[in-house]
UniProtKB/TrEMBL annotation:
Keyword ATP-binding among UniProt keywords: no
Chief location: other
Domain of life, source organism: Eukaryota
InterPro entries, per database record: ARM-like, ARM-type_fold, Armadillo, Plakophilin/d_Catenin
Organism (species): Sapayoa aenigma (broad-billed sapayoa)
CC annotations in GO: adherens junction; cytoplasm; intercalated disc; nucleus; plasma membrane
Gene3D superfamilies named among the record's database cross-references: Leucine-rich Repeat Variant
Protein name: PKP2 protein
UniProt biased composition (Basic and acidic residues): 94-107
């Protein structure tokens, strides 16, 4: 577990170690089957997998990069924006949401397991069944890592979490736990998921009221609470930017007074949340059909 947080070279060596990832997944599957999701060894296994999934899209071996990103590489581009796999255009980036992963292997081995739907379902199962905060946080964090990029893999993982594995109810529960790091990681995962336009209606229906409910009534009082509030605001921004319906849902959940209160805080310490709330307010005002409702 310590070694897996040793940086890019450490992650690379461990991902390449024959049988290591498979053994970790095997152990966790056994723990879940035996109804023992709270043992220390399971926590260690999940934390290792969490660390090994960090920067995965960027650090993939060339053979996987070629098979997964071949369609992206074959798309002509003129915008010389630096990216993980050479230059790519904004149009290509937009198309990536519709680019499916190659067909999943029924028996993934090694690094292939890290983004496979089997492990995604294991993480969601641990989020639902484990009561260990570190196990919950690591499971959420692994999914956050896997959905953090802009290529086809993160969007495919996001679709699996939301639509194929029905993961939103378990993630929503984590918004209401008392442990601040677990809550923060759950919100960060939802922020990643909400970037996928095809999933926004599902996410808004399932968790938008819960996101509003966990927003503080005024400027948050700690760094981690500030980061959590900022992530909530950016998630709500993603969900409402192109949807007047979702903006109205936010309004009916009494989110506007909270967002205004957070935006009016000008303390340097908490400017991240204040700035995010201001960006959200500006976006909400773009829905001109809601101006009368806003004013009321």
């Amino acid at each position: 577990r310590n070694m897996s947080s040793a940086g890019p070279e450490g992650r690379k060596k461990m991902r390449e170690c024959d049988g290591l990832i498979d053994s970790l997944v095997y152990y966790i599957q056994g723990a879940i089957a035996d109804h023992e999701p709270n043992d220390k060894a399971t926590e260690n296994c999940v934390c290792i997998l969490h660390n090994l999934s960090y920067q995965l899209e960027i650090e993939l071996p060339e053979s996987y990069a070629q098979s997964i990103y071949m369609q992206r590489r074959n798309t002509p581009n003129n915008d010389k924006t630096p990216g993980c796999f050479g230059t790519r255009s904004r149009k290509v980036k937009e198309k990536q949401q519709d680019t499916p992963l190659p067909e999943e292997k029924s028996n993934p081995k090694g690094v292939e397991s890290l983004w496979h739907s089997t492990l995604i379902r294991i993480y969601l199962s641990l989020i639902a069944k484990s009561t260990r905060n570190y196990t919950q946080e690591a499971s959420l964090g692994a999914l956050q890592n896997l959905t953090a990029g802009t290529g086809p893999m993160p969007f495919a993982v996001a679709r699996t979490v939301v639509q194929k594995a029905n993961g939103l109810p378990s993630i929503r529960t984590m918004l209401h736990v008392s442990h601040p790091a677990v809550k923060k990681t759950a919100v960060s995962l939802l922020r990643n998921l909400s970037r996928n336009t095809s999933l926004q209606s599902d996410i808004a229906r399932e968790v938008l009221p819960d996101l509003v409910s966990v927003l503080p009534e005024s400027a948050p009082g700690s760094d981690i609470a500030c980061e959590t509030a900022a992530s909530i605001c950016y998630t709500l921004y993603n969900l409402t930017q192109s949807s007047s319906h979702n903006a109205r849902l936010l309004l009916s959940a009494d989110g506007l007074p909270k967002i205004i209160a957070i935006s009016m805080n000008d303390s340097n310490m908490f400017s991240k949340a204040s700035r995010a709330a201001s960006v959200l307010l500006y976006s909400l005002w773009s829905h001109t059909d809601l101006h009368n409702a806003y004013k009321k």
